C-alpha cells in the first residue's frame, strides 16, 4: 500500500478569516489556485526537515513571503522533499507560513496532502544503460534519496480522502500508444522486456486530490513530469515527459485504461470539475520538449488556458537576451528563469481549470527589477503561478 499522510485539522472561523482578503486582492466568492516549484529539495534524506526546524533560513523565508503575498487558497508545491512522517509539511506551516514574513499577514493551511514519489526509488534496472545499476539515474525518477523533488498540496478547504487517488505505480507500457523510446543505433526498444514490464510512467507521481469547496467538489490534478533533457539521442526523458503530460489529457477525457494505486480504473466523469496544476517542464512553443505536449492540454475541449502573465518575465527576457531573443513565445507568460545561453526563460508551470469554471484573473509572481518584491524571486528558478476562479455554492 502506498505510504502517504493526510494532515487534516480544524481551524476556527476566526483563524480562517486571518488569511482571507489580506494582501492578495481577491474578490468575494473567488478561490485562488496556485502552483510553485519552490526548490525545497535537499541531497540527503531528512535534511529539509532539519532546515525547516530553523525559523530563520533566508531562502525559506522568501518562499514563505511569496506565498503570503499571493495568498493562494489551494497550492501545489513542487520540489518539496517527501517526508512520510509529515514533519516537513508541519514545520513549513508552523515556522514559516504561519509567521509573518516581510511584514505580510500569516497564511494558514489546515489541510495538506503528500505521498510517496518515484524519485530516488531504485528501479533495479540500468535505465540509462551505462552498465551500472543503483545510481540516481536508475531510480524510477531521478533522485539521490527516496522522495527527493517530491510534492506537497496545501489547502484551506477540506480534502475528500475517500475519493483521493494516486498513480505512482501506473506502468508506462499500459498507456495505449506510449512513446517508449527506441535506440537510434539499432531501432530496437531502448528498454529490454523486463525493464519495460516494470517501468512506471510517473517520474514523481500523479495525484487526483478532490477538494470540498462549498457544496461542490473540484479535482486538483497535480504532477511534475521529468525534464525532457539529461538523456541522449534516444530522447527517453523527452518521450516520458510527453506521456506524463498526456496522462492528464486522457484522464479528464475519462480514459478507461488508467488505474490508480488501489486498482480502481478509469478517469474523470464528464461533469467532474477539475484544475490541473504543476511544473510540467514543457513550453508550448520553445525549449526541448517532444512534440509540444502541453498543447494537448491547452487545446483540449475540456480545458481552458487563463494565460497568466507578469511584467518581470518580459523585462528579464529582454535584459538577459541570448537564447531568449530566439524564442517564439510571449515572454509575459514565462514562469522559469534558466540559463540564457542554452535554454532561456520558458513557460513550464501551469494552472489549467476546466471550462465549467469561470476565470476571474490570473498572474505570475515575477515583479519588475525596480519593485521591492523582486528580491524574493531568487529563492527558486521558477515563479509562482496563480489563477482566481469564481465560486458559487
Short description:
The chain has 393 residues and is of the alpha+beta class. Helices cover 19% and strands 19% of the residues. The protein is globular and about 60 Å long.
Report the span from N to C terminus. Answer: 36 Å
The CATH architecture comes to: 4-Layer Sandwich
Structural class: alpha+beta
Q: Find the count of extended strands (DSSP E, 2+ residues).
A: 12
Class, according to the CATH hierarchy?
A: Alpha Beta
* CATH superfamily label: Endonuclease/exonuclease/phosphatase
Can you list the strand order of the major beta sheet?
1-4-5-3-2-12-11
Q: How much is the average pLDDT?
A: 93
Structural domain tally: 1
Enumerate how many helices there are, as a single number: 8
What order do the SSEs take from the amino end to the carboxyl end, as H and E?
A: EHEHHEHEEEHEEHEHHEEE
What is the 3D shape? Answer: globular
Radius of gyration: 20 Å
Beta fraction: 15-25%
Q: What is the CATH topology assignment? A: Deoxyribonuclease I, Chain A
The major pleated sheet works out as: 7 strands, mixed
Uncertain residue segments: 1-24
Helical fraction equals: 10-25%
